[in-house]
Batch of 2 targets.
Target 1
Amino acid sequence: MRAFDLIAVKIWELKEDLNDAAKAVSSDSDDEKLLADLAHWAAGRCGENAEDVLQQVKVWANDKSVLPALRDILEVGAECNNPPPSWKFTDFLGFSSAEERDEWYNNRVLVTMHRGTKQIGGSITQITMGNTSVLTDFGSALPGSHGTIDDNDIVEKIFRKNKFKVDAVFFTHYHGDHAGLIDKIPKDIPIYMDPAMLKILQVLSKYTGNFSMQELLANRDGRIQTFTPGKLFSVGDMNIIPFFVDHSAYHANMFLFEGAGHTVLHSGDFRNTGYMSKSLEIIPKLIHERYNKQVDVLLTEGTMMTRSPKVENLLTEWDVNKEAANFMREHKQIFVVCSSTNFDSLTSICRAARTNNLPIYAGDYIMEMLKMFSDTAKEKNGLYDLPPVKSIREYFESKAGEYIILSGSLLGREKGKAEELYHNYGKGKKDYRPYLIYSMWQGYLDSGHPAYDEGLAAFVRQFDGRVKYIHSSGHADKETLAKFITNIAPRKYIVPFHTENPEGFKNLDIADKYKDMVILPQDGDTIKIA
């Protein structure tokens, strides 16, 4: 059938016709309509029956991975007068035979940046090697995100029937901007995560009222599979090695994906200021020496590219512990605003309280989370052997004049309820004039920032200036990013994500050869690794 063969010729030979086709068929077109339009165009050019051509094309497109290629060839066709960058696909269907086509699919390596090229949080990346295609992270957008694709749209776009072939979803860690949409993943797709992440999400889900999340995380069908950091395993045509990395989420991971003769390292979120900061130096050595691998493509976060460590007075976790301990020597009635899942910072605070013999109180949720953290971690590291934490009910029943109250992050509270919360803790207490240790990002308190949280800011204002800012960021600063890139020594591309300033990577203190590797895709772009 000449029309069917015509569909598989090179894009440059179809320049004028593809321009017309691209105008009629958008990337959001229904799959049936897309195939019908393409078959009608080819049949018209060859004088053949469109229905016969359509049936043949449907058989060929039964492999779901063909459909994104069909969409992209039409889109790229509209750009033929201005060829896209060399790292974009410019020649999808230039096959002389079915064998040549199959060989291409078996050896292809693609990276699709679905979301996160110009925003912090909500990053979703697809990595395809051979016939295997996986997603890394599937999180919700952060409040005030500058992204152009909202959560509902990104879910519909990726999982619409036959749009993208997804064999598995990998999660770097449990923060909502990386895992918040986990319950939106179709039930036939396996999920991979660190075993500690599964335990943490199970505790979290108990207090959210999200029953679909609770059912998923119960994992009765074994759909969620856990891995061991540092141990290689396979999914389809792809080998994966997870690496434990320091972050403000306990047991966060990077992933090295290998297949079709190439390697892609996905950094997830990372830093070098926590108790496990040495992991950032160990990972490149493990990749290069233990596993004898080279990294072709480095996908790296860049949260701090728009933030200044000096302005935000960011500290190491050792500094947090030291400053908190000093503050507690002078003040004996202290609230602590800190994420309930930031185990390192909670450890720093609790150890400071123990140093000063101050009792620690928390609600049931934080108590359960801390117990789970401590039970999981202390088997491997005595650092996380925490002092006892008492129920907040004991605080209300006692007349204790000294206390540390772990209040969690308090994000998302209504202004009135946040103010009421402060006063409720003072009922029946003499000389109630507590201080506050604020151990989170200060952008939540900035009324001019898109992420401003009115309830949290209202709670902080109740302390009338009696606030100590003690915080260790969860992300790498520019100096750390530059050092990490140099140590990883990628060979082809460096792709920034999870950042509002991807262009800033070209100004990092790295060798010119690495600056030349930095590419800046848009959300939805696919990078071909040749």
Target 2
Amino acid sequence: MRKKKMVSVLLALSLMLGVCACGSQSGDSQESAPKGEEQKTESGDSQTSDENSSDSSEPAGGTDGQVTLRIAVNKHPSDVSDNADFAKYKLMLRKAEEDLGYKIEWQPAIDQEKVATMLTGDLPDVFWGVLSDSQITDNTGLFLPLEDKIEDYAPNVYALYEESVPDWKEFLTYPDGHIYSMMGGTLVNPLNAISGTMWINQKWLEQLNLDIPETMEELENVLIAFRDNDCDGDGDASNEIPFDWCHKHWASRYVELAHSFGLPLGGGYYDIVDGKIVSIVDSDQYRRFLEEYHRLTAEGLVNIEGATQTDEQYNSNISGGKVGVFIGWAPYTYISDEELKSQYVPMPLVSAEGTTPRLQANLNGASRNCYVITTACQNVEAAMKLWDYFSQDEAGSFATAYGEEGLVWEYVDGEPTNRIYTAEEATEMGYGEIASNAGTSTFAATVGMVNAGPLMLKSRTDPSGTNGAVRWSSVKNYEPYYMEQTMSQSIIPADANEEFSFTTDGLSEYIDTFACDSILNGITDEGWNAYVSGLSQYGYEYYLEFQQKHLDNAF
């Protein structure tokens, strides 16, 4: 067993900063997708109970005595496996069924609407990597308390928590005093601290004898050159996209562009200054940001379709070699062609004139809600034994998250290490049907549970040339601009969350719609004043007060 005792100040700090829902991680470097919006679901019985389930070790659900489980499982958007055969390329999922003698019906939860339907209808036995804090607090009667079962039914999990995760009970315990889940994700994971970063086509820069821009003014000059020259060499100087973004893509939303203007959007519609929540989206600086990106859009420097294009269109633009600068996770997320992929290099976080960039970072990838057992489960011990199987040792956890050892990752000098792999290698190891995706986020998301693996204490080592190293080459440029204080990750009580959801219903859509429309069409004084006035109608003042309570743990 390769577990290592890592009780340290760093782990303690990262745990306190831990995320509330299982963050989606894709790509060979723990690529993260955003958490789904908090769903308003009917509240379950406030009294949790084991009455509808059994702790019996006897098989349940199968007419032949075989243990059967129905598991609603997170499916990353990059996962190309068939929903009806979700485990086809995931070796550890298939191996667990074989070794334990289980029959598992995998129910991919591809969106939060489907999850909400499950919560109000036909409950699975387990929710794996799909539930948020509020979905649990709003429906505690649907889930089983696990605090008195982990040590007995999941001894590997319990040993890992006890040896390496300070204050794990406090982190997992809900306001009603119960633990409803077991952790997943990576405890110390700097690559996932932020989402979108900027990448630029270095080949285009070299053709035009230009340097990588470091300010908004320099960026604009580069974009003008990209617009006015046939940079892709196809004979058409009008089909290049100088700068691309996509509001519908989790790592390329408009909020990622705001960091250059000192606006730490992404974590919420607020800033934190000296321990106080400060409004952002009604500020003069926010208006300046929107007006600047409208100007760049109107001049043909920023993709005019950024607010409306689909994920597929955005990916096609980048993989087609038409984009000079894009904001997103990393080139390997969108490009399979090795030559084109190598053309893109990281940019620094460019700064607008008179502004210091700022952003909220999340230094902990651990999820407290990764594996949740429902009251529909007739064999609790069997369900917990499955998670314990995936968590039996470090190698098992990494294999569950990233596929079998020797392709996406391997051990080097005893350390889990990211590796460079080819389509030929993938084919030789039995993944010929998806080998064309080798080296991309799609392949890793298809062969493993990169968005919801068992708890791993730290991320893989990333040698030069690997995807993790590529991602880090960009992330490290953003570290100097991380906010000193970020939002508390304490669990919000159900009644407070219900009031918040009701009072601020429609607020995020209102803010996002105005932002995207402003980037596309511009802002008038009349339109700005109407928008600011409308914020109060959607509960923005309440929103800010609520965030202050959350920051102060004052619920």
